[in-house]
């Protein structure tokens, strides 16, 4: 019964938002008990195909069905000359960042502040907070060595963060803080994409927390099924 109902939803016999069969209709059409109907409906609800509204009935969900997708950042500046300007590499402590790195408030970490450019236009301002053990203190004065943090860590510690697991959240930031608007060379009343990312070592240990402000006109994402 459940597979028959699922076929009707996936084949387009019921569209997102359509009212679905009532329990009485299903009992009559499939000649089954109420328990069998309730079980099938509950499973389809749990899997995201149906939604139940009190006093109104059951409807086909308007949401996306659970499936594996690819989520990718669309580069809107292909063919343009890219460069990175490292502004500072600083050892510091901060309770709010320590929480993101899952370390004690007293434990130091490194802030690496950079501006990424395309054809000499500031694209994004990035604050990378990295566990102190992965930054060699003798290199801190050489700012350009950190134009690619992942390359530096790979060279120094043989750890490939390019393939590491990460989680990322993007929000619209408006208005943008004045310091970031100056670095991005945009007006204070323009929005930016504000991106927060955690990068993980094996064992789910946070190695890096990043906050990024990106010019809105260069922000674009694509979702596609695998």
Describe, in plain words, how this protein is organized in 3D.
By secondary structure, this protein is α+β, with helices and mostly antiparallel strands. 23% of the residues lie in helices and 35% in strands. It has six helices and ten strands. It has helices at residues 2-10, 23-30, 34-46, 95-101, 149-157, 178-184, and strands at residues 50-53, 57-60, 69-73, 82-92, 109-118, 121-131, 165-173, 192-201, 205-215, 221-225. Strands 4-5-6-9-8-7 form a six-stranded antiparallel sheet. Helix 2 packs across helix 3. The protein is elongated, with a radius of gyration of 25 Å. The chain starts with a helix and ends with a strand.
Helix and strand topology:
Layout (H helix, E strand, L loop, with lengths): L1 H9 L12 H8 L3 H13 L3 E4 L3 E4 L8 E5 L8 E11 L2 H7 L7 E10 L2 E11 L17 H9 L7 E9 L4 H7 L7 E10 L3 E11 L5 E5 L1
Antiparallel strand pairs: 1-2, 3-10, 4-5, 5-6, 6-9, 7-8, 8-9
Assess the beta-strand content as a share of residues. 35-45%
The SSE string, one letter per element, is HHHEEEEHEEHEHEEE
Number of helices: 6
Into which percent range does the helicity of residues fall?
10-25%
Q: Tell me the overall shape.
A: elongated
For the sheet with most strands, the description reads:
6 strands, antiparallel
**Secondary structure category:** alpha+beta
Please give the radius of gyration in angstroms: 25 Å
> N-to-C terminal Cα separation, in Å?
28 Å
Low-confidence segments, given as residue ranges, are none
Mean pLDDT: 90
Strand neighbour order, sheet with most strands: 4-5-6-9-8-7
Number of strands: 10
């Amino acid at each position: 019964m459940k597979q028959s109902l699922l076929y009707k939803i996936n084949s387009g016999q019921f569209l997102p938002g359509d009212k679905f069969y009532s329990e009485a209709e299903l009992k009559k059409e499939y000649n089954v008990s109420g328990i069998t109907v309730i079980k099938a409906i509950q499973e389809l609800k749990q899997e995201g195909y149906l939604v139940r509204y009190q006093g109104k009935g059951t409807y086909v969900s308007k949401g996306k069905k659970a499936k594996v997708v690819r989520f990718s950042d669309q580069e809107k500046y292909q063919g343009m000359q890219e460069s990175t300007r490292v502004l500072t590499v600083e050892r510091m402590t901060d309770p709010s960042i320590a929480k993101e790195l899952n370390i004690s408030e007293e434990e130091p970490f490194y802030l690496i502040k950079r501006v990424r450019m395309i054809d000499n236009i500031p694209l994004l301002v990035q604050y990378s907070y990295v566990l102190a053990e992965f930054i060699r203190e003798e290199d801190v004065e050489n700012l350009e060595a950190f134009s690619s943090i992942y390359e530096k860590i790979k060279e120094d510690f043989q750890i490939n963060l390019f393939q590491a697991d990460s989680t990322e959240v993007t929000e619209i930031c408006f208005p943008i803080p004045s310091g970031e608007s100056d670095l991005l060379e945009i007006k204070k009343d323009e929005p930016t994409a504000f991106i927060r990312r955690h990068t993980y070592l094996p064992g789910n240990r946070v190695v890096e927390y990043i906050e990024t402000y990106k010019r809105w006109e260069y922000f674009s994402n694509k979702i596609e099924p695998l």
